[in-house]
Amino acid sequence: MAAVRFELLQRCPHTLARRGRLHTAHGTVETPVFMPVGTQATVKTMAPWELAELGCQILLANTYHLHLRPGEDVVAAAGGLHSLMAWNGAILTDSGGFQVFSLADLRKVTDDGVEFRSHLDGRPLFFTPERVMAIENALGADIIMAFDECPPYPSSREYVEASLRRTLAWAKRCLAAHQRPAEQALFGIVQGGEHRDLRQQAVAALVELDFPGYALGGLSVGEPKPLMYEILEWTTPLLPADKPRYLMGVGSPDDLLEGVQRGIDMFDCVLPTRVARNGTVFTSRGKLVVRNAQYARDFRPLDEECQCRVCQTFTRAYIRHLIHTGEVLGIRLTTYHNVHFLLNMMEQVRQAICAGQFLQYKQEFYEKYGYNEGESRRGEGVLR
Question: What is the pTM of this model?
Answer without folding.
Answer: 0.96
